[in-house]
Structure formats: C-alpha cells, structure tokens
Write the structure tokens for this entry.
Amino acid sequence: MYLSAFDLFRIGPGPSSSGTVGPQRAALRFVHDLAADGLFAVTTRVEAEVFGGAALAMREQSTDGAIVAGLCGELPERCDATTYAAASAKAVLEGSLLLGGRHPVSHRPERDLRYAVKSSVAFDGNAIRFIARDAGGEAVATRMYYSTGNGAILAEGDAETQQRVPYIVESSESMLQLCILRGKKIPDIALANECALRSPAEVRSGLLRVAHAMLAALQRGLSTHGTLPGGMRREAPVLADTMVTTSFTTEQRCATYAMAAAEENAAGGRVAAAPSNGAAGPVVALLQIWRDSGPIEAESGTLDFLLTAAAVGQLLRTLGVRDVGCQGEVGVASAMAAAGFVAVNKGSNAQILHAAERALESHLGLTCDPAGGRVQDPCIARNAKAATLAYTAAVNALRMPEPTQGLDRVARSAVERGRAMAGRYKTASVGQVAINVAEC
C-alpha cells in the first residue's frame, strides 16, 4: 500500500506519534463521527478508555492532554505541550469541555479518562475507546480507534484503501529499474506519485510547511535552555553555545542538530515526524547540515531532500520495517536522512539507495526501551548517533561511483530480528531500561 510523504511527515506535538498525535487524531475523528451520525445534540457526556502502551505511558506522553485537546477540536498541527496543558486544566476546573469547539458536554478527566493498564484489545496495543452518553447516562455511541504509528489512526471496521499512484515500488531493485526505464531520479518518481494525490502547488506548499516545522523545532531546541519533563537537562543549547566559539566537526554538528530536535520533541514542542516523533532528529539534522553549506537553490533542494527521504521511508515500510523496535524508527529515520542528503548533493539513484542501506544496517536489532515511558532516554542519544551515522553513510556513498545494492536484504534482516524480539522490547515502559533504570 502506498504511503504518502504527508503520512510520513506529520506535524504535531511531541513526544510520541502513537501516544500523542495518534490519540488526538482519534479524538478528532470521534467528534467528526458523532456529528456525521447526528448525535451531537443528544450527547451530554464523553468518556475515553486508553489501552496498551498508550495507557502505560499516558501521563509521560501527554496522551490525556492530547485526547482532551482533540475532543475540543484542536488540530495537532496547531498544538504543543502548552495547548495540551491548558485544555486539560480547563476541563479539570470546569468539569466540561466544548465538543468540537462548539457543543458543551460534561467531561471530568479524573472520572471520564481511564487507563486500562491491565487489559488489552485485539489488533493493536495502542487503542482508545470513546463513549458518548445522553442526559440519562445511556451510551448513544461507542467507537474504538487504533493508534497505528506515525500519528495515523484506524477506526474499528475501517477498510484499508489503496491510494492510486502511477508508480508502485516494492523493492530497491525495482525502484532502480523503474528509474532507468523512465529516465528519472528517485525524487522525480516520488513527486509524480504525490501529484497524483494532490495538485503540484499543494505538494510544494505542504512539503515546505513540513520543512518549516522541522527547522523551527530544531532552532527552538538549540536556543531553549532548561530541563525536560521528568528533570532531564537539555544538552543541545549548551552544545550550540559552544559551537559558536569552538570548531565542531560536521559529525558533531549533525549530532547537536538531531539532539536539539529530539529534545524539543521530548518537551512536547511542535515537530514533524520523520517517520515518527521519537525519531524526528536525523532527517532535519542532515537537512540543516546541507542548508549550512549555503545552497543556491534552497527551495528546490529542500523539496528533493524530503521527497527522496519519503521515497526511502515508503519503500522500507513496504518491505515491512515497522513495529520492529527502534531499528524501525530511528534506523529508518537514519536511512531517510542519508538518502535525502545524497540526493541534494547530486548523487545517483544507486548512491541514494546505498546510503540508505548503510545507515539502516547500523541499527539492526535496536530495541525500543524508553526509561520510564518518556521519549528521552535513550531516545535523544539515539537520534544524535543516527544523524552522524546517516551523514557518514551519505558521504561514503557519494564517493562510490557504482555501489553495490543490498537495501532489500538489510530490510529483511530488520524484519526478521524484529519478529524474534520479545514484545516487551517494542513497547514503551514495559521492558529493558524502562524497568531497570537506576534510581538516582
């Protein structure tokens, strides 16, 4: 199934695509479904039950604030941690909210927002059940939604739809052959697919909006001192201050940029997932490194960078690199970043795919094990390391006139290792560092 660039690059608050942006979109969808079914007028109270990993890390990932904001009609693209906190505080104070921003209903978070930490549901671990009740307390609507990753949601009973695009690519080899046959570069193929779903002007403006959100988050991360939720100190602004007076290598700047974006995400700032919020650092880090070089055609280059990164992200999702630990998030982000960097440095299609291969290869077997459920430790450090690996992979690929191709093989290895990995190492706050972190 084709995955658009705008499915990979979703703008929204941190810290988690599945625990924050997904639940907010689910709440928005519930409000829309109520209105479509003509149930707005009879709804006087709304409840929500959260299941799976989202329930286990609900407070740490601001899932509660995301749900309340979504019920109030707030869009993720316009929210940050402050918006979530204000929406929650207002609901607690007043015991109500404006459903969809216009219809008052009773909602007390301490009573109507429940965490089902001892039960699970079929199909997916991260699920939210919404219940709308009438004045007599009877349920007039019950809907289940699944937060499936990347900020995407799926309602119970939804059928997956295939988006019609001209070029469906199922392997790196077929992508190379397609480019040769059509005489195109990888970003050209990606652009043709996107323009089958939106007008060229919409694709251009949408991607530039994504780039602006990415770069703005990075700059906030570089300039905002202080601590993150949970008490962890921000390191990126300290390094940025040092970078002004000290000579940093390109790899060190990559790491600092990725850390800045990841810390801003951890703080609940507005970021662009790439391919997830928790892996938002590598792509924007290498985009900024390229922009630092003073490109003459910054706009067209930015579009090529993001289209190439999206093409590689879409390919790896097609090959099954998803829900397989951090190798499927940070590893894919590293591969996307490396591919985009090669593209804007006039690399060939083969060099683009080789860079993605080498970047992903370094992340095989990486588990998902955030300490205490927060997308901070070791997530931020992994973003920084992934950016440096992406840069190295890109530079090495550009030096190879005819690189070998093995991205499909590496992707299969990631999937196999993910299947062998215990489930608790792929879910927030239930395994590894999360339960063994030292109290200090």
The mean pLDDT is 90. Residues 200-223 form the longest helix (24 residues). The CA atoms of residues 179 and 200 lie 20 Å apart. The chain is about 50% helix and 10% strand.
